[in-house]
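Not sure how to ask, but would you mind making up any protein sequence you like and the tokens describing how it folds?
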Amino acid sequence: MKFRKLNGGDAEDLLVLFKQLTKKEVILDIDGLLADPNYHNVVVESGGKIIGFGSISIYRAAVQGIIGAIHDIVVDGDYWGRGLGKEIMKRLILKAESRRVKSINLTSNPKRAAARKMYLSLGFEIKDTGYFEKKLD
């Protein structure tokens, strides 16, 4: 297995993987992701196919300072239980540390028990934040 960064030719495999995560079709702006200097990612490849992915966006907030937001941690179901999700997370955390991030945030559906257990094992804490979201077109 090979760990690397996202590249422009990854869109098709990544869309298949995201469908496992979201259970719906995803519109992917891969060029926008690649052009954003505050967006970092880890791709796991096996046999020329993407089998895992995760990303972190790093930005500055007025009160909190430099923070990171982790998104889209996914491992192909055929590869679960091999520690790939944890390795993706460790690599994203290292990137955050190298950028002097003060804290990292993420959300995880309560139905994803294994993922939540992994996040706790990496030192994340569940917060009662009353997370809100407003969709914009």
In short: The domain at 2-121 is CATH 3.40.630.30 (Aminopeptidase). The mean pLDDT is 94.
